């Protein structure tokens, strides 16, 4: 399943050096390839849909920095905006115009949103949204769903997806039981479980936080009616609904998952709070949480809920985010979906050809291929897949010049820069990868 380290000698050498000064040699655990084995590629540069590693090998990028690089790497418009902003200074610690422009761009895209507060990571956004919900309601309990990942917030590191799922950790050490004592974890897509918890403890619950469409146990969209039930039940009990759109925001459509129509969407009413990150930072550290002006008025300096950040609204990050969102036009999304379908359909055909059990699941242009033949509706289902087959598939693709997410519990991402050449490299790599998965 693992590739020999000699197939990437410069990456292997850097990993060894990194490992003496950085735990595990990486600054975010899934990057270490522990779930798929082998040597993580140290990337030297990236352009459009291509990554180039320190050994000089090129890969088609289906990771897109875990979501942000929706226009492709080093997009000329974003690069120009970043250069122009950086020319004028890196951080002021005062209000600045770019923050206003980015906040306006976000608020204008999502009708119920009136105000956002800018922060530097998705983790900060969800942490702050939870604090705000607790401050607004005067209640402590938070409901989350197993397999959903909301960043490494102590209270939300319970049955979390993403790296916690990849590494098969039950939870994180270093999170005292008191920190998750007010966190209730329910199965995703289970309305009956939600009803039961609210019937018993509704008056204690400050908020339900959910990934708008789950992407951190692999892609698991909400079942028809689930999102509407979340809205109805929270409203009945005076709890807030926090829609975490850090991954789906501006990725599934120009107004994120919220903007999509249909039974899996927000026909039942808007959430009280949204969180955003990834795409809205264009590859730089910028994220946000927001809601109505009334809810947001509870935040300092207007209200008693404290929240702050030295680099919040950083002028270079906000310039990158704004230029990226300007490129997120109505025309972009059908193109992303066409690219994603070309890849997923070919992958599915290749796997079927080799008799490999699999299921493809979608949220906009985000998709995952689960190596099991049944649909995945929750975290238990996701864990039933053949992760070893994914590892073999992953390494065959990597050897052929395609960089997939190094875990079976993650979404695949495409960008507006994935052209025919890049898609062709992916399609050419698939038959051998399907054979490897079948072994
Ligand atoms: N929420 C969701 C849905 C995410 O996917 C992530 C990151 O993957 C986060 C929150 C945390 O964001 P960050 O890694 O920027 O802290």
Automatic annotation (TrEMBL):
User: Is the keyword Cytoplasm in the record?
Assistant: yes
- Gene3D superfamilies per the record? Aspartate Aminotransferase, domain 1 (3.90.1150.10), Type I PLP-dependent aspartate aminotransferase-like (Major domain) (3.40.640.10)
* EC number from the UniProt entry: 5.4.3.8
Q: Which GO terms describe its cellular component?
A: cytoplasm
Pathway field of the UniProt record reads: Porphyrin-containing compound metabolism; protoporphyrin-IX biosynthesis; 5-aminolevulinate from L-glutamyl-tRNA(Glu): step 2/2
Cofactor(s) listed in the protein's UniProt record: pyridoxal 5'-phosphate
Keywords for this entry? Aminotransferase, Cytoplasm, Isomerase, Porphyrin biosynthesis, Pyridoxal phosphate, Transferase
Record's superkingdom? Answer: Bacteria
List residues modified as N6-(pyridoxal phosphate)lysine.
278
**Molecular function, one GO term:** glutamate-1-semialdehyde 2,1-aminomutase activity
Q: Give the UniProt subcellular location, in the record's own words.
A: Cytoplasm
Give the record's subunit note: Homodimer.
* Family membership noted in the UniProt record: Belongs to the class-III pyridoxal-phosphate-dependent aminotransferase family. HemL subfamily.
Q: What is this protein called?
A: Glutamate-1-semialdehyde 2,1-aminomutase
Taxonomic source organism = Knoellia subterranea KCTC 19937
Q: What is the lineage of its organism?
A: Bacteria, Bacillati, Actinomycetota, Actinomycetes, Micrococcales
